[in-house]
Structures are given as structure tokens and as C-alpha cells.
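Reopening this one. Same input as before:
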Amino acid sequence: MIGNKYGTHRVLKPKGSLPQPALQLDNDFSKVYSNEILCDVETLNVDAASFENLKEKANGDPAAVALHIAYIVSIRRKLHNPETGSGGMFLGTVNKVGSDLDVDLKPGDKIASLVSLSLTPLNLRLINEVHMDTAKVDVKGQAVLFENSVWVKIPEDLPEALVLSVLDVAGAPAQTDKWVWPYDTVAVLGAGGKSGMLCCYQAKKRMAKKVIAVIHKEEGREDVDNAPFIDEVVVADASNALDLLEKIEHVTDGKLCNNVISCVSRPGCEMGAILITAEGGVICFFSMATDFTKATLGAEGVGKDIDMIMGNGYCVGHAELALDIMRDSEYLRSLYEKRYC
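Same output, byte for byte:
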């Protein structure tokens, strides 16, 4: 029995929908289609915007976060936060590879999914622990990947926890690599976070003239200050657009930025990114908290002729690029192992 390569055969509600926007999927894995991969799931790495939302709803209580996750999965049969629209990714072990798939996988292989949990059929038997500082959730469950799903084997030279943390945001440095050009002035909003630091590194590797790290508060500034690939640190609330603009004007002598990468996990930061972008520049909104209506109408409202890119979490080679950063940068590997392992 072969299913649709995009997974529409697993959609229960509404019929005809693709798995990501669907309201409910089929997570009955007593039947596995011949072009699916069945995985035993060990860890969920929840999307940053979704996890912040869940923590807020749970008043910071890990047990309540677990209940919210369990409830979402029980209703939607996938981890698809109805308020943020986002999910995350999983770490697991291959249980079964469909007979119609020609892939370099076998039962027992450790893999990480590189497609969102918001479109991945998921069945949770147990939530063991919620790690509030890393957005990781230890579980026992199963999931299936479709024929068109993207995944990566866990490399042997890097710790699993580190691999999962980095792959969760692998699209961000890959998009940075695509859009930053030599001698650009680049600002990264949310630079102190997991994706932000990777973007700063890749921007400098792309020979950016100046990499400006914008962080929300002084807490954690030392990690950014000490990064050898960051030229300037600006402490500003990205949701306060005029204050951010004033500070960026100061460090760029009024020239603003050719390229802005938004990695913030909070809403309301669209106009800050727009105002600090120079005419003809590019913004990559790599955040599920972005309101794209506010961004497009906001740019129009202030008369900015700029390109605004939705940060697609997938591009060819993004996993390898992100993992290679961990291999190449002793500073980032040490920092991420301290934070996420």
C-alpha cells in the first residue's frame, strides 16, 4: 500500500489538505505505507516561538507544558501549536523503512527529522521530561516521515544533543549564506539565541564588512561580546522600532544595513527590522513569530524599497552547513555544548 509522497493520505481533517495546514492527521501506525519511514521518537525539539508560547500559557511550569503538548498531539495527532502555527523537529531511531523507498536507511539508524512536527504524524505514549532551558522534551512515541520528507543521520563525531539543537535552526545560517554578500553591513536581531549566533558566524564567513549583533538585554551579552565573528553589539528592544533605528544609525554612521536577519522569537519586531534596512537591502525573517501582513504593509507605509524574504527552513545542504559550523568554530561548539548539551 503506497501513500501520497507529500503525505496527504494521512490527512483526516479537512480532506484534500496537505499535512501542515491540516487540522488532524492519522497517527495509527498499525498500518505503515510502503513509502513511509516509521521512527521511534526519543526527543522533541520544540520550535522557539511555540515553546515560548507554551511556557507563557503554563506559567513556566514544566508539568503544565507537558500537558499542553499532550493535549495538542491528542487533538491534532501532530505537534502543531494552534496559536503559533509551528512545531519543531524530532530525534529518533528508525523502526521500519517502507519497501518502496530507495534510501540509505535501515532499522536502528539514529536520525533527526528536518521537516516540521507541525506536519509529522505523531503518537506519544509518554512525556518523560520537559527541559525548560533548551526547549527539548524527552518522550516515548512514534512518528512517520513521508517519501518527500527530509531527514539526516546523526553523525558520530558530534554529540546527539548538540546535533539536534543545531539542526533545529539549520535553515537560518543557510539562508544567511544565500543572501549575504561580501562587504555587506549585516544586523542580526535576536543574535544571542541559537539561530542568531549561527547567522552571525555565517555572515562573517561570507565576508560581511560589519556584523552587528542586536540583543534584547544585557543578560548573556558576554557570549556575544566574546564571539570573534561579531564586530558590534547593540542592546535594544527590536519591538521598539525607533529606538532600534537610532542605535543602528549610530553604529553605521547613518548608512543602515544592507542585510537584516530577524531571529527573534517574539512578535512585533517587523518594523524595527524594516527601519534599519537600507534602501535596496534585504531582510530575511527567520522567525515563526513574524506577522507577514504587518511586514509588507509596514514597509509600504514608510516608503521602503527593500526585499523581504520568508526564511524557508529548508534549502539544499542546510544540515551539512550547520553541522560544519560546529566542526569549524571552536567558540560556537564550546558555547552550544554548554548551553544545550
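So the earlier flakiness isn't reproducible anymore. For the record, The mean pLDDT is 94.
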